[in-house]
């Protein structure tokens, strides 16, 4: 099996198409064989395809599992005694949630790769951090799923950390003012989920008439756009309005899911979501599930080298999008870059922010 300690030393956006294709095919072939031999449910699914896991010419040919399967089955490739953490997706009341089982190795590798990817955007030094949420999220086990895990995961990039919202989800201006005075002139890392940032940070700032000086801030946000789209708020508007009330000019969205925790697709300064060497995105034509060419919209398939304790390395999502290009983004990062169009028709709300919005 591949050595993650060696792999994590690879620069996350350094491989061109051909090299990356060979790299992913080798690792994902190993993972496919591992899951085939260790997970009976996965073996039955692969045998029904049909597909020969001992003869994989390209990672593009590996059968994908619909993400919905993780709501219906407990899929594990390790013994239950080896599970150290169980992750659940963000579901609204009455909806089933995905259940993802992590052993120590998989959980550790997720953290290592997350650090590697995000550090390419905000640097390796830990900096003062404002979490645009309430610390109450970590107390409520019903909410502590993808949202709580996301906060804990991104908190590793912060040194001195505060929560911007109190337990009633109102801005705690006293805490923020003291924090900004303490770290005046320093770079500041902000993290939050998209709808939470809009509803409880931007709207409250606007209503209060108070402006914050976050010109040195870097905001990373993600986890559900449905409610904002309903309010006619797109990515450009989101950034523009935030800058008006806080002077934030470095705002980056990301795409990710609990079924492949640690694998995030970060937005660059040109507004493009990027695959890293540790992952890839494939667009499937919904008519025949063939690989769609650059520019054509279709269903998003995501692959990741991280899932080892469960067969989540090749998944077909319920999102639609398109590949914008490969190895030629103006930001200089190699790999595919893409955009998200939205959820496929009749797909349930499931982003962390959307789940919160649906409950309240």
Short description:
With 360 residues, this protein is of the alpha/beta class. The protein is built from eleven helices and 14 strands. The strands form three sheets. Strands 1, 10, 11, 12, 13 and 14 form a six-stranded mixed sheet that branches. A six-stranded mixed sheet has the order 5-4-6-7-8-9, sandwiched between helices.
Structure description:
The structure is a single chain. With 360 residues, this protein is an alpha/beta fold. The N and C termini lie far apart (45 Å). The C terminus is likely disordered.
**N→C terminal distance:** 45 Å
Percent in helix: 25-40%
Assess the beta-strand content as a share of residues: 15-25%
Number of DSSP E strands = 14
Unreliable sequence segments: 348-360
Mean pLDDT: 89
The biggest sheet, with number of strands, parallel, antiparallel or mixed sense and barrel status, is:
6 strands, mixed
Order of helices and strands: HHHEHEEHEHEHEHEHHEEEEEEEH
Count of separate DSSP helical elements: 11
C-alpha-based Rg, rounded: 20 Å
Shape: globular
Look at the helices and sheets and give the structural class. alpha/beta
Keywords:
360 residues, alpha/beta, 6-stranded mixed sheet, 24% strand
SSE arrangement:
Elements: H1 4-7, H2 17-38, H3 40-47, E1 65-66, H4 69-72, E2 83-88, E3 99-103, H5 104-122, E4 127-134, H6 146-154, E5 158-165, H7 173-182, E6 188-193, H8 194-208, E7 217-222, H9 226-230, H10 235-246, E8 250-255, E9 265-266, E10 273-274, E11 279-284, E12 298-304, E13 314-326, E14 336-343, H11 352-359
Parallel strand pairs: 1-13, 4-5, 4-6, 6-7, 7-8
Antiparallel strand pairs: 2-3, 8-9, 10-14, 11-12, 12-13, 13-14
Helix pairs in contact: 2-3, 8-10
């Amino acid at each position: 099996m591949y050595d993650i300690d060696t792999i994590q030393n690879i620069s996350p956006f350094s491989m061109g198409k051909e090299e990356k294709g060979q790299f992913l095919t080798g690792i994902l072939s190993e993972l496919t064989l591992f899951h085939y031999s260790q997970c009976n449910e996965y073996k039955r699914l692969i045998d029904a395809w049909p597909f020969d896991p001992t003869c994989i010419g390209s990672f593009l040919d590996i059968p994908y599992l619909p993400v919905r399967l993780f709501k219906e089955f407990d899929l594990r490739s390790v013994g239950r005694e080896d599970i150290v953490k169980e992750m659940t997706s963000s579901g609204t009341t009455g909806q089933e949630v995905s259940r993802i089982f992590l052993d120590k190795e998989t959980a550790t590798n997720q953290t290592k790769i997350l650090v590697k990817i995000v550090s390419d955007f905000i640097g390796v030094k830990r900096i003062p951090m404002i979490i645009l949420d309430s610390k109450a999220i970590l107390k409520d086990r019903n909410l502590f799923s993808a949202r709580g895990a996301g906060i804990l995961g991104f908190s590793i990039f912060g040194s001195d950390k505060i929560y911007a919202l109190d337990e009633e989800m109102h801005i705690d201006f006293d805490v923020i003012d003291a924090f900004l005075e303490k770290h005046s002139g320093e770079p500041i890392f902000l993290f939050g989920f998209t709808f939470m940032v809009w509803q409880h940070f931007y709207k409250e700032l606007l209503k209060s008439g108070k402006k914050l000086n976050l010109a040195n801030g870097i905001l990373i946000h993600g986890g559900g756009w449905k409610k904002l789209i309903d309010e006619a708020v797109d990515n450009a508007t989101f950034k523009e309005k935030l800058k008006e009330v806080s002077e934030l000019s470095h705002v980056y969205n990301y795409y990710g899911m609990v079924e492949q925790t640690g694998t995030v697709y970060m937005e660059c300064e040109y507004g493009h979501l990027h695959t890293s060497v540790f992952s890839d995105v494939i667009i499937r034509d919904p008519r025949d599930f063939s690989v769609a060419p650059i520019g054509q919209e279709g269903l998003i398939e995501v692959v990741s080298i991280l899932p080892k304790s469960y067969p989540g390395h090749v998944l077909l999502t319920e999102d639609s999008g398109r590949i914008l290009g490969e190895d030629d983004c103006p930001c200089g990062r190699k790999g595919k870059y893409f955009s998200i169009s939205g959820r496929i028709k009749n797909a349930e709300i499931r982003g962390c922010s959307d789940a919160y919005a649906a409950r309240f």
